[in-house]
Amino acid sequence: MLTNAPDSASTADKSGFLQVVNRICFDEKDQNKNQKHGFRESENEREQNAHTVRKYCTTSTVSPDITHATECLITFASTHDIAVRLLRSPICSPQLGFQDRKLDRACDMLYEICSAQGYKNMVKSVPHAVRDLHAVYVTLISLDGSPQTKRWRTHYLLLLWLGVLLLNPFDMNSLVDDGTTLVAGIVQCCTEALNEPGPSRQAAAFCISTTLTRQDVSIHFMVDLVHQISSLLADLGSLESQAPFAAMGAVQALAAIYKRGDRTLLQKLADRVFEAVRPCLLDAKYGTIRILKHFVIKLVARLGIAVLKPRNASWCYTRGKRTLMMDGFESCYEVSDADEETGQRASVGVEDERFKHIVESAVGVLLQATCDSETKIRWSAAKGIARIASRLPRGLADDIVKNILSIFTDPGSHHNDNAWHGSCLALAELGRLGILLPKRLPESLSALEVALRYEVRHGSRSVGANVRDAACYVAWAFARAYPPCVLGLYLPALIEKILMTAVFDREVHVRRAAGAALQENIGRQGIQAFGSIGIKLTQTLSFSALGSCERAYIEMTPVIAKMGYWEAAFAKLLRELVGHWDTRIRILSAKSLYALVNIVNDRSLLQDIARRASLVLAPLASGSRDLAFRHGALLALAHVMRALRTFDDNYLSAQLSTVVPSLESSRLYRGRDGDLVRIAACSFIAALASCSCPLNAPTQLRLLGSLDDSSGHALETVRAAAATAVRVLSMSYFGVVAYTNGAFNEPDEVLLSQTVFKYLDIVRKGTTASLARGSCNCLGALPAWLVVRDKSTLDVVFETLIVRAWRFNMVAGEKDAETRRGALVALKEIVTIIDSRHLIRKRALKLHASFVHNAARDFGLDKRGDVGSWCRICGLKAAVSLASVINPQCNLTSTSCKSRIVPCLLTRAARITADCGCVNFVLARPFLHVDSIFSWGARESQELCCSLLRHLSEKLDTVRKISLQLLPMLFKRAPAVPMRNEIEVRLFANGKSTELPSRLCTCLQLKGAYHSAILSGLIQSAGSRDSKMGSLFRHALVHHAMTEAKTQDNSDTSYLARSFVLKTRTLGSRVSKAPSVEERSRMHLPLLRCLTALIEAGALNPIFQTASRVHSDPNALGLDLVISLTLLASYQHSSDVKKICAAVDALLAYLSAAAVSAPVLAHRSLATLLQCLHSPYPRTRAYIAEQLYARLVELSMVRDCFVGMGPLSAAQELLCDINWGAEVNMKFFDDVIFRLCHILMIEKGHIQSQEAPPKVNHPECDELESYAYLVRVAGY
């Protein structure tokens, strides 16, 4: 389909393409290197060059760059190879293969251009000098091997080049000595290539067509080709694999000859050719070979054209001048009666009556081929029908038009999209050639209108996009075929249909095709038919604007509606698209309806729109058995009602209020995709509430009950939609009743029992996970006056949600991350909507502890991964919101906030002046409220800031992003943040170009709680090996530690080392309660990896120097570290092989670092490594032995090592001789390890043998356990 597509090739693609061409053709160094050493281009380099050329040629249109590159490559090939072939007589012998690879290099790139742009465009740039003819022919026949070898691209390009050279009109004998021999050789070479299955067959057909259609070539070559086709088609049913390809090549060559040859000559062979291909037209077995059938259709069409006399029929419609400037002034052509009578009496138009059956058979075959399942065959048949009809009398041509148009009115062909597509193509071609007369326009435009809407659903998909695309092509062709005086009567309706297709079609290629047809109609029919609106339409519906379906539906719809197409768009959406089979189209149609209704400002017109939409959509929404119509009608009603903003029609309100109850009574929520209907029903209830639809109290509670049912659904999307609807419904209806005379009234018990108490009871019981999640969402969606009815209600709500937000809480016997997240979100929403006076100190501290100490430390895992990150993100957001609500500084710009802060400050000053005992109280708790019911102090701010800084250095990108957004908000809203200025300078100071990991490492200098929090996050990120950020954090941490170690004052290094030792000791301790088990397990591997990296980099060398001086001190850092690592590397502490190997790596790094400066610690670490060789796991033993051997080799090259050269060599030899991964008795390894102890002078008392782990009899798992959990979660 022709479109106004722009050139999408980028500048980088163009630069790479030209660079490849220049490197091949003009790089003298490369050429000299090839001449000296022979061309040896690697396969990777060739593929890279081919990819570069293919990428540019595919994304770019036919440009001068491609033409220039083609000329350069051909010139390079002819200059460097063809001339050489004429000078070297041995190479010119066809018996010797041509081995020079320069030509292959150029042909590889030329083939990529051909495959992207088509050979017809490429051959226009091929040089056609007569002097190259003999050289190209000799090169072609002397190629080594068959065309199926790696040099098939060279064979393909040489055939094309030879075909271009044979287009020279000079006599063959004047070009070469023996023209007949040369032609015979070319025919033989092409005939052999016609048997190939690859692209060489196409090039051979082109070459043989240019050869046999020359005036100086005998016709007997063509006769031989026809006989060859007859024999090949007769033998096609045999088992010979090469027969189908040979038949395809022969028919393709003959079709190319009939396209290019002289008609007088071709008529002599018409009977023979038709008889040769007749079996393909009659026998069904030939139709299974699609490519062969395609070439046969082409050949039959050209046969029919060849036997008909070319003429300009007087009855055909001709538009006349095709200049756009003359469109408004040219006269309309009409067929006169005399022309019509002449056309009716005219004969078929063949020069010989014996060709009449050929024409009749060709027309019948082509009409049947328009319904073929192959697109190429339908396209060739459509063009052939139009060209044959242009040479027939008017009566016969009109019969063809009738036959084509009958497809659109035949009920039996409605489900045959192939027939519709082929008929549209034929209709367009008939219009372009003038066979479709103006009197047939009404019938043709009716068929076009139906084809633009053609879509037949097949299961979960639909067919018909190709039909709609072809219908747009018909509209495009009609715009070029008829002037405004002919098409003007039908133009408004045609433009409206094309416009609706351009905006609302599902497929992007159909929208763009309709846009091209619209632009063609507007441009061709003149400005008189459209005025200034035509220019606006072409600018709005551009190629790029129609590329996005969302943009077309949501942005383009209001624009075209303001141009006068509002009614057409509204009717299209309301009648056709709201029940579309595709869910995405139904959703976009509803949004588009909202955009249409939203631009209407007349209140009476809005009421009329509501009535029209309700009359059409309400019955579909409540009673349709088709899910698509039911879901689409609910969505459309919801968006229309939301766009109304206010609605006071009591009759329609009563009708609309029964839609959802009717759905439930009919049980239309059930079945496949019933969740979509539930979401749409929730959206519809929210829309009714948002436009203040007048509903009585029982109806309000009935709708609330429907939302409660959906809030316990198993799908998160349904629960979220229900919670949103509960929020809107409660705010719109319950809030209005409760607010009178400027104050909130106390809600009645019935309302509380249906909302707050009901949700609290479900959350407490936790019968199923889905019910608990939905009730938490609904609690967070309730208005403030329901939650804060009294102090006890608010306390119960907080306590219940805090319990459910606890990271160890169980729902239905299992941990549920979604329930914890829902409880945290509900707490955040409640904190945001209630007044700050309700946040007394006791409540606020509980919330702070739940957010910071509980949620921010939720590191829960399941099969989905780190689900605890959901709770951590929600906890951080809720904590910052809490700090914002209870801090009066958050809105200093508002007048009301200033009026509350000034009395607060005056009260503080009065208290300080009156009673000196209150000074400490005020300083510890700054920014008191007026009633002094709560204060936010430095401790809370520091804890929250530490949590944010820790998560700012976490390994998850989402957590880091949220923390980076929340930290400036905390500094702005929360008071008394210790070291606030230092943190802001290190993290957010302007002029710093360093990345986030480096900035965070500089914050380690803050010491105290900040140091511990940031280091915990850095360890988690730096110890990760599954992301790029992990390497960045690890590099930044090592670089910071190395920088601090080089300073004269090693206090920072000692502090960092002490922190690592403390964290390592915490991992090894089983009684530590500071980190949870989940957090400890999560930090195990990253901590050991970071410690290994720091020790190997030498960042912790000062602690080994200190340890060498005070090795008798049991509290020395080096000794504490080796003791902790010894515990972590032992089997008794952990049975995880990865953790043991990570501890061994740290011990090995420790051994190398302390080998010279701290021999006592090195000796201790070596003893621990030998102890680890007693591991009962073969994999662990093999890994430890391998790494220990490598480390001993390194130590043997170190001066002043604590172990001599001889023991090290003996230990290395013994480690190599033993197969440590063998499954043998542990006593064998005990003897070997004791020998190593003797060699390395380690006391045997430090080494203890380890027994194999006891086998644990795990209970057999019930295969229905996972299914039972699914049932419990779903609530059945």
**How do the strands line up in the largest sheet?**
1-2
Q: Pick out the low-confidence regions.
A: 1-9, 28-40, 80-97, 327-331, 336-343, 890-934, 1107-1115, 1250-1264, 1270-1276
How many helices? 63
Distance between the termini: 53 Å
Radius of gyration: 42 Å
**Strand-pairing-aware structural class:** mainly alpha
User: Globular, elongated, flat, extended or rod-shaped: what is the shape?
Assistant: flat
Task: Describe this entry's structure for a reader.
With 1276 residues, this protein is an all-alpha fold. Helix 4 packs antiparallel against helix 6 (102-117) and helix 43 packs parallel to helix 45. The longest helix is centred in the middle third of the chain and has 29 residues, at 549-577. The protein is flat.
Offer a few descriptive terms.
1276 residues, mainly alpha, two-stranded antiparallel ribbon, 63 helices, flat, disordered N terminus, GTPase activator activity, ARM-type_fold, TBCD, Tubulin-specific chaperone D, ARM_TBCD_2nd
Write a compact overview of the structure shown.
The chain has 1276 residues and is an all-alpha fold. 68% of the residues lie in helices and 1% in strands.
Summarize the topology.
Elements: H1 11-25, H2 28-37, H3 43-59, H4 64-87, H5 89-92, H6 102-117, H7 119-122, H8 133-141, H9 152-165, H10 172-175, H11 179-193, H12 200-212, H13 220-234, H14 243-260, H15 263-268, H16 270-282, H17 290-307, H18 337-345, H19 356-369, H20 375-389, H21 394-409, H22 417-432, H23 441-452, E1 456-458, E2 461-463, H24 465-481, H25 484-487, H26 491-504, H27 508-524, H28 532-540, H29 549-577, H30 583-598, H31 603-623, H32 627-644, H33 650-657, H34 659-665, H35 674-690, H36 697-711, H37 716-738, E3 739-740, E4 743-744, H38 749-754, H39 756-765, H40 769-781, H41 784-787, H42 791-805, E5 810-811, E6 814-815, H43 817-833, H44 841-854, H45 868-886, H46 895-914, H47 918-924, H48 938-952, H49 957-973, H50 980-988, H51 996-1002, H52 1008-1022, H53 1028-1045, H54 1051-1068, H55 1077-1097, H56 1101-1109, H57 1117-1129, H58 1137-1157, H59 1159-1172, H60 1178-1195, H61 1205-1217, H62 1226-1239, H63 1265-1274
Antiparallel strand pairs: 1-2, 3-4, 5-6
Helix pairs in contact: 1-3, 1-4, 3-6, 4-6, 4-8, 6-9, 8-9, 9-12, 11-12, 12-14, 13-14, 13-16, 14-17, 16-17, 17-19, 17-20, 19-20, 20-22, 21-22, 22-24, 23-24, 24-27, 26-27, 26-29, 27-28, 29-30, 30-32, 31-32, 31-34, 32-35, 35-36, 35-37, 36-37, 37-40, 39-40, 39-42, 40-43, 42-43, 42-44, 43-45, ...
Domain Tubulin-folding cofactor D ARM repeats: 292-527
Domain Tubulin-folding cofactor D C-terminal: 943-1108
Keywords: Chaperone
